[in-house]
Design brief:
By secondary structure, the chain is an alpha/beta fold. It contains 25 helices and 16 strands. Helix 11 crosses helix 21 (500-510) and helix 15 runs parallel beside helix 22 (517-525). The chain is globular and about 80 Å long. The protein binds nicotinamide-adenine-dinucleotide, (2S)-2-hydroxybutanedioic acid and magnesium ion. GO terms for molecular function: malate dehydrogenase (decarboxylating) (NAD+) activity; metal ion binding; NAD binding; protein homodimerization activity.
């Protein structure tokens, strides 16, 4: 099986190499010679260039490696097979141990490869993405962040702390890569549903960028995970002697914004064409920074905007699953539990879609939406209403202020119950049973909070209590459920990982100055296709919005004259693919 895979990849690589040979466009993904400015042992210690025992003898001579490695040359295929075998043997040896122990052991073995040989790492990741995504991404990445100070061995990415104020413009030049395309940044203040994890949140940008490389073919030498350490309010971390971040409370207000401003200026001064993804910022800063930077820099917030696209795609898919025309979306009653960065982003985008489809105003389109936060249903009666939720606040005459989830479900009989609350198990038996009375023939339950323990309900409970005919989606992966009627209850993964790689890729290759709503909408509308198609849709929307400046030697005119097929082709040919390139030394 694996060998078939490898053979398939070799063929794909050969085909890619042939295509790249005749390419008209960019240089970033050419699997031709790679210039390296190091020699000898320095190369072996650099995961970007290291091939371990895979260095051919001629290359060992050229790069001063002769004698630094055992004499036998091991092929890429053999290295690959050896890694997979050690992974499988780890699986066998940890059988019966607690899930957390097994997950962390799997993460460690992958992380060691990541730190040693990125080409091999990304190949095994791409080849086995279904098995490995839950380890390097959600849910295990959450566990990794919780234990990061203890797991830490080698640095990855860059750390900018409150103590670096005034230094960032020079610090950014410490990063060894001349070009950076994608940056994912967090301040660690809301890591998945796990709260404030301070500097330990760096695991999230690392995991997200792994998905960029694996799914969007971004060159791993051009990605940069960033931790903005402005302190933490997590008392347990502050008291932990091994905690690796600043031991001070989080900066607030202007002091906080000055740090983010300085980083953004520094990053875009060095890499004016980079795309910056904001990730896992607490809601107030997620919205504030999006507002502050979206017209000035090429950036987006994945939790607000990426999640909205994925959820919208899920909501539209639900209408299709009901066997109804898409236009019926405007009649769906949707209860959203969680009014934070993700819940509000989803609600706003879905309301916009209804307004567009029905040709009505935004305010009119909010009629079928019900927003619930930690204090229950949001109505106009609430004192101190957050301005961001005002448009969705219901009239208390319809349902009382602060009504519980079960009350709202029983009264509204919604078509969709969507959770982005971060509270595990909040869709309890009573709530799920109430969904049986939904007005839909196929009610949808989306438990989108991460990681697994924070999901609003499990897949098994959803099918058991809400009925076997539901549509189920979750942010973290669950196994499909064997139903009593003999069929299978399918689990759809509703996670922004299906969208952000395409948004970043299309934005990058269009050279767009900013990320527009049109580009985000285009991404949401073609989520069923592969990332290259998402990237192409985003790029074409950037052309429509007339904001492209081109990328490398492809100018804005070239981009605007490409047909849809040519755009997909252009995107595909610019996706990095992990094969060993001949290394050529240059001083
Ligand atoms: N699946 C995905 O792609 C995806 C994307 C983004 C966020 N998420 C998940 O969504 C969750 C929330 O993220 P966020 O950024 O919006 O967080 P947030 O802190 O900004 O918002 C959380 C919201 O949940 C509400 N809430 C808290 N307790 C509640 C309760 N008992 N009942 C009802 N509402 C309650 C809060 O009032 C707040 O409005 C996290 O678990 C995150 O992992 C998933
Ligand atoms: O990271 C994820 O798995 C999705 C999302 O960005 C989240 O914050 O939960
Ligand atoms: Mg996130």
């Amino acid at each position: 099986m694996m060998w078939r895979n490898i053979a398939g990849f070799s063929k794909a690589a050969a085909a890619a190499a042939r295509t790249h040979g005749s390419r008209r466009y960019l240089s970033s993904a050419i699997p031709g010679p790679c210039i390296v400015h190091k020699r000898g042992a320095d190369i072996l210690h650099d995961p970007w260039f290291n091939k371990d025992t895979g260095f051919p003898l001629t290359e060992r001579d050229r790069l001063g490696l002769r004698g630094l490695l055992p004499p036998r040359v091991i092929s890429f295929e053999q290295q690959y097979a050896r890694f997979i075998e050690s992974f499988r043997s780890l699986e066998r040896n940890t059988q019966g141990q607690p899930d957390n122990v097994v997950s962390l052991a799997k993460w460690r073995i992958l992380n060691r490869l990541h730190d040693r040989n990125e080409t091999l790492y990304y190949r095994v990741l791409i080849d086995n993405i279904k098995d490995f995504a839950p380890i390097i991404y959600t849910p295990t990445v959450g566990l990794v962040c919780q234990n990061y100070s203890g797991l830490y061995r080698r640095p990855r990415g860059m750390y900018f702390s409150a103590k670096d104020k005034g230094e960032m413009m020079s610090m950014i030049y410490n990063w060894p890569a001349h070009q950076v395309d994608m940056i994912v940044i967090t301040d660690g203040s809301r890591i998945l549903g796990l709260g404030d994890l301070g500097v330990q949140g760096i695991g999230i940008p690392i995991g997200k960028l792994d998905m960029y490389v694996a799914a969007a073919g971004i060159n791993p030498q051009r990605v940069l995970p960033i931790m903005l350490d402005v302190g933490t309010n997590n008392q347990k971390l502050l008291q932990n002697p091994l905690y690796l971040g600043l031991r001070q409370p989080r900066l607030e207000g202007e002091e906080y914004l000055e740090i983010v401003d300085e980083f953004m200026e520094a990053a875009f001064t060095r890499w004016p064409k980079a795309v910056v993804q904001f990730e896992d910022f607490q809601a107030k800063w997620a919205f504030e920074t999006l507002d502050r930077y979206r017209k000035k820099f090429c950036m987006f917030n994945d939790d607000v905007q990426g999640t909205a696209g994925v959820a919208l795609a899920g909501l539209l898919g639900t209408v299709r699953a009901q066997g109804r025309p898409l236009s019926d979306f405007v009649n769906q009653k949707i209860v959203v539990v969680g009014a934070g960065s993700a819940g509000l982003g989803v609600t706003k985008t879905a309301v916009q879609a209804v307004a567009r489809m029905a040709g009505i105003s935004f305010a009119e389109a909010t009629k079928n939406f019900y927003l619930i936060d930690k204090d229950g249903l949001v109505t106009t009666e609430r004192s101190k209403l957050d301005p961001a939720v005002v448009p969705f606040a219901k009239n208390p005459a319809e349902i009382r202020e602060g009504a519980s989830i079960v009350e709202v479900v029983k009264t509204v009989r919604p078509h969709v119950l969507l959770g982005l609350s971060g509270v595990g198990g909040i869709f309890n038996e009573e709530v799920l049973k109430a969904m049986r009375e939904s007005d839909s023939c196929k009610p949808a339950i989306f438990a989108m909070s991460n990681p697994t323990l924070n999901a609003e309900c499990t897949a098994a409970d959803a099918f058991k209590h809400a009925g076997e005919n539901i549509v189920f989606g979750s942010g973290s992966p669950f196994e499909n459920v064997q139903l009593e009627n003999g069929s299978v209850g399918h689990v759809n993964q509703a996670n922004n990982m299906y969208l952000f790689p395409g948004i970043g890729l299309g934005t990058l290759l269009s050279g767009a100055r900013i990320v527009t709503d049109g580009m985000l909408l285009a991404a949401a509308e073609c989520i069923r296709h592969i990332t290259a198609e998402v990237g192409a849709a985003v790029l074409r929307a950037a052309v429509t919005d007339d904001i492209v400046e081109g990328h490398g030697d492809v100018g804005p005119r070239d981009l605007s004259h490409m047909s849809k097929e040519e755009t997909v082709d252009y995107i595909t040919r610019n996706m990095w693919f992990p094969i060993y390139s001949p290394l050529v030394h240059e001083k």
